[in-house]
Amino acid sequence: MTIQFNDETFHGDFTFKNSDWAIKRFPFPFHEDSYMYSVNMEPHTSYRPGSVFERTFDVDEHYVSEMKDRARVLANDPLRCQSLPHMTLAGWDLVELIMEAKAREYPDLFELHKDGNRWRWINKPLGIDDTFTFLDESTLPYGPMEYITRQTQGDFAVLDQRDDNLWMDAGMVTTQADWSLDFDIGMNFFEWHAPVPKAHEMGIFVRALKFLLNIQQGQPARRLNWTMTVNPLLDTSPENYHKWGVMKQGLTMENIGEKQHLRVELQTFFRLPRSNALVFPIRCYLIRFEDLVTVPKWARRLHRVIRDLPEELATYKGFIDNRPLMVEYLSQFDDGSPTSDGIWPDDD
Amino acid sequence: MSAGTAKLNVTVAEVKPINDLVTRFKFVRTGGGDLPTFSGGAHTVVEMQDGDITRLNAYSLMSNPADRGAYTISVRRDDQGRGGSKFMHNKVKEGMEMVISNPVNLFSLDLRAKKHLMLAGGIGITPFMAQMHQLSMMGGNFELHYSVRTASLGTYAKELAERYPGKVHIYHDDQKEAIDLKTLLANQPLGTHVYVCGPKGMINWVHSTAGEMGWPREAVHSEEFLAPASGKPFEVKCAVSNKIVQVGEHQSLLEALEAAGIDAPYLCRGGACGQCETNVIGYDGKFLHYDHWLTDEQKAGGKHIMPCVSRFEGKTLVLDR
Amino acid sequence: MSKTEFPPSITSRPVYGELEARSGSGHLMIADAEGAEAILDLAESADKDFWAKAHVIYIPKKTGTKYSSQLEELGAGQYYAGPSYEAAQSRIRRALQDCHMGTQVYLSGTESLMGQAMAEATAAGIPHTAIQTEHRGSTARRMQCVHCKGITEDVTTDPFECSHCGLSLFVRDHYSRRLAAFQGVRVDAEDPGNIPEKVELFK
Ligand code: HEM
Ligand code: FES
User: Domain containing C160: what range?
Assistant: First the structure.
């Protein structure tokens, strides 16, 4: 498989665009016509060739441009990538996990050659060919976690496991749905989830944590989460909210199809072998409403989900003011006919 | 998540008696290749086909975690036990193929620690051996205090003292040597974490002494695998699968559920991880709770049981499985 | 003034207890303003040899000499009264260097003081859950501006102006132990210039 990498931007002139291929494989997050928080986790095993669930770390047409966007965000604000001192070993675990998976699953794009601890890593799309000593920080241009996550799509939270909890002690976070690593670093599972409405009372976090603490080597898991973003802005950070918040204004029936994006996070969980830490990659996929409604089942379902979403969730996700317009726009594509179970389009 | 953890097919590469009680086993991947890396303190669950009984026992990995060529474990023969350790000692031979689980760590180092103080009793030395490998590679600050019955039963004591000069302190019971715990705990710099693995009495002693001396709970770590206790046979009704299961005298409830083909999750099989927690729908009788997982309140409540180690005596027990 | 009742909040917001004398190899007590009352209350139940192993660090702030002589009379092995947290900080760090595992840490007074002293003690290796806290006195908040990262002390209104970048920020309950601060976020980000009137929420 060869991927044509797009040359596009996720800020300023926003030239981001999904090809037909990317639209078809978009991870639509709703398996039924309504949505509420749940402990929605399943094994992260490969299935559905062509889907974003096929590989350990999905690489798509946005790869090169997303990595440029990450470099830009980090240059403006280096605090988006931080690692507390005891997390370096987990960073090396992550280097190994990502390099081995990418070299195995995308041999035409990535190569890893090992001679004992002497490793040569070739990343063709980004034009990188580095030789370094595994577990020796002085042989890499950045810390291990930063090095590899500057070359991998999605945010990364690296969690230390102790005292029957997970602690967010390291991360690379430049494509987040409005939360701050710099503020949350050092918090535990319940603390960083504190702002989420309803889910605590529903017991979701207690059960989810129990599941996560028991994730074992070689048995990764995944879940989907979603929100809404105006314009294909990857960096919806609280740090820059005073710059992007204003973009939520000015949506009209004429421009909403192009400007409003459904933002889906494919979240995966892996146990890291040397450090016993857990890594939580959060991969963000964006799709404009206009493109999404080309799949009739998705259009009908999204209309119903957004229309019926509990107020607290729409407020927390930041689109309560624009909801009426979204519903009006989407209703044009909902003829009231039934939708089939599951997230996949009907035509295959 | 369904029962257990991912499996590894291995071949026994070496069986080496270490002293009168302890034998060491070395596993390599069947057909060659690397085994997964692990973190110091991890264990593996070894499957034993003992006639028509399948036994699954957890043993700490003691080899260097960075060595992906082989895993080693040490097994102490327990003549009173249900037979897992006897099987390992008597039946397992070089060249035999076995199935073990991926490494699971329920006794990991707190990597923030400014110093790691390790207290071992007897065969409880094994997880520390892997941890010391790991720490010495990372330049970590550690100290081992190891209590053994006699010099000849001091499993690996001599080689550890040689490998880590100045960091290893051995105490012989038969020479009336004992760890001076109070003094030891009184002199540790802030940021020290203490780890204990050994007999139940030793673990309780360390927890209570550290507690009395004002040590934070989070800085005291212990690991004790319980071997499932034998006991009177009993009968269980499984409501979800609609089966009636007999639990034999030398069988754990978890083993009986597995033998009946009921999907029952587990990780440690030693009452420590919480994974096997099962809801009780009804009962008439008395629970024998042996686990470290349920709170005393839960144990008294009669609504939960940990099938890997706990038992039941009485007329009826109905489980949500 | 007695111990403060806070309204129910989210799980990152700290909760405070009541100080009690615990067994330990030493006792490091850090308080500001009315926080002195919590130490004086604890003194009623602590036995005599408790104080020999105690080190009291006190920042009176606006309370002047109201509590300092009483605190001094407790007979702590070491007693220090200083003009501000910043002034006391290097002493706190030095005191922590001398501590061994088993030392008990007691913090009382404002959230700003307890938060900052807790960050020092946890960095030195004491788990935060092992540190005792009791809130007394002002409920003013220490806020971090999520945009410029500057810290504004003694915030009593919502919204408030960031003392570094000048943006009007609303006060969240989301709290970072590492920063010892609550989070402030621009209140008029989606509708610039539309700044609600200030409400005094904290005293
Ligand atoms: C250990 C890995 C995880 C990390 C690092 C993580 C991190 C986060 C963060 C930072 C937020 C934003 C909170 C805010 O508003 O400031 C969030 C939201 C949330 N998380 Fe997690 N999370 C993890 C696992 C999970 C799991 C396993 C669940 C399972 C149910 C879950 C459910 C949620 C939900 C429901 C929200 C609200 C999202 C929304 O409505 O947009 N999280 N998470
Ligand atoms: S399997 Fe771990 S407690 Fe039962």
Answer: 141-200
